[in-house]
Design goal:
With 459 residues, this protein is mainly alpha-helical. It contains 19 helices and 6 strands. Helix 8 links the parallel strand 3 and strand 4. Helix 6 runs parallel beside helix 12 and helix 6 runs antiparallel to helix 19. Bound molecules: arginine.
């Protein structure tokens, strides 16, 4: 008979049982479920709701169940529906009547809210670690490439020269925000829902603060109706995950472009690329592409969860059981992506010469020529127009700004003097942009120092 079977006169239909069961998805929370049950049993004994002897038996039974599950000696059943009732069933089978006391003053509704929070809290720590590993690698690469000049783009058109370090640090900033967003979400995740019961709390004299402390939570939830039906913490995680994946997807897009022969800025390591079953010459950036692709999947998880939650009346509704597939998929996907990203990036070969060559094309120093004229007192708008004509002249004659003669330059503007050639040198153009947050090696070195200190503070 089902644990809830008292008021039923018939067995569930097989289809009902299969359709209703969540064990295939929620079994991964067995450690959290057991930890929550042990804390609950200890509190029940402390409050005199069960005896010390009964508590001992329950805790010992749960610990044995945990060990047996870890060793693969126990099998979950669909008949017991979910992880909570599977474990309760194991307990009753193991210790008999006393096991039936565990569920006093508790509902699966507050139990599942607890388990998901505990599970997510653990994974949040793991994921933060993975982000920090990736940030560490970005920082190392940026430190190596402070002087590696490359073209910066807007609209995918060459714009102004930057450095590879600066470009990598842009991704550092994105992932830094992700790490901080994740950390911030823990404030709201870290509340203990047990004691909320099915929806209306309980008449038993529970010590919720004890359970909170025992399970390492910062707070207890403040409203029983909300506590059993709140999945904001899962939504916040999926939002965080979606933004993180968006960042990785943008980075992937660049790595893919840069790996093309047309760009030739990087070569990914053999270990993190794959070949073609028909074209023998191919070496494809599949991992970067998959990360880009899996971004859609994580967005899907967020949208699924938002849609599940939409218009749910208070309090618990079975719709909420669907939260875990989306949440777990987002957790798993983000972890896998971060895990492959770090070594893929660490082992990539950056082709500094190609990048410098790229920076020299596309008139990336045209703004500098206009700045040069503006420094000499010409209004920037006028300078812009003059340089525009000079660029057009170059395009028509297949030349670059650096090899226009001084005589020709003076026809564009008498303000242009012999120092213009040093001024237009691509490296000089980068070095000049030493404003805080700029790409100049001097500014980037400052940024690197700050980034290293911050990273240190996050560990
Ligand atoms: N398996 C359920 C879930 O994941 C546990 C809570 C079930 N509660 C209930 N009243 N049916 O949401």
């Amino acid at each position: 008979m089902k644990l809830w079977g008292g008021r039923f006169t018939k067995e569930s239909d097989r289809l009902t049982e299969d359709f209703n069961a969540s064990i295939a998805v929620d079994s991964r929370m067995y450690r959290e479920d057991i930890a929550g049950s042990i804390a609950h049993a200890e509190m029940l004994a402390k409050q005199g709701i069960i005896s010390a002897e009964e508590k001992e038996q329950i805790v010992a039974g749960l610990q044995e169940i945990l060990a047996e599950l870890e060793e693969g000696r126990l099998e979950f059943t669909v008949a017991a529906e979910d992880v909570h009732m599977n474990i309760e069933t194991f307990l009753i089978a193991k210790i008999g009547e006393v096991g039936k006391k565990l569920h006093t003053a508790r509902s699966r509704n507050d139990q599942v809210a607890l388990d998901v929070r505990l599970y997510l809290r653990e994974e949040t720590g793991n994921i933060k670690g993975l982000i920090l590993d990736l940030l560490h690698t970005l920082l190392n690469l940026a430190t190596e490439h402070v002087d590696t000049t490359m073209p910066g783009y807007t609209h995918m058109q060459k714009a102004q020269p930057v450095t590879l370090a600066h470009h990598l640090l842009a991704y550092f900033e994105m992932l830094r925000r992700d790490a901080e967003r994740l950390e911030d979400s823990v404030k709201r995740l870290n509340s203990m829902p047990l004691g909320s019961g099915a929806l209306a709390g309980t008449g038993f004299n529970l010590d919720r603060e004890f359970v909170k402390a025992r399970l390492g939570f910062a707070n207890i939830t403040r409203n029983s109706l909300d506590a059993v039906s709140d999945r904001d913490f899962a939504l916040e995680f999926c939002s965080f995950a979606s933004i993180l994946m968006m960042h990785l997807s943008r980075f992937s897009e660049e790595l893919i472009l840069w790996s093309s022969e047309e760009f030739g800025f990087i070569e990914l390591d053999d270990a993190y690329t794959t070949g073609s079953s028909i074209m023998p010459q191919k070496k494809n950036p599949d991992l970067a592409e998959l990360v880009r692709g899996k971004t859609g999947r994580v967005y899907g998880d967020l949208i699924a969860l938002l849609t599940i939650m939409k218009a749910l009346p208070l309090a618990y509704n079975k719709d909420l059981q669907e939260d875990k597939e989306a949440l777990f998929d987002a957790i798993d996907t983000v972890k896998k992506c971060l895990m492959v990203y770090e070594p893929m990036l660490r082992t990539a070969r950056f082709k500094a010469e190609k990048m410098l060559q790229g920076a020299k094309g596309g008139f990336t120093n045209a703004t500098d020529l206009a700045d040069y004229l503006a420094c000499k007192g010409l209004p920037f708008r006028d300078a812009h127009a003059i340089v525009g004509r000079a660029v057009l002249h170059c395009i028509e004659n297949s030349r670059v700004l650096e090899d226009i003669s001084l005589e020709e330059y003076q026809q564009f503007s008498p303000l242009i003097e012999a120092d213009i050639y040093a001024y237009l040198d691509i490296k000089a153009c980068v070095e000049r942009r030493s404003v805080p947050g700029g790409p100049a090696p001097a500014a980037v070195k400052q940024a690197l120092q700050e980034a290293a200190l911050w990273l240190e503070s996050m560990r």
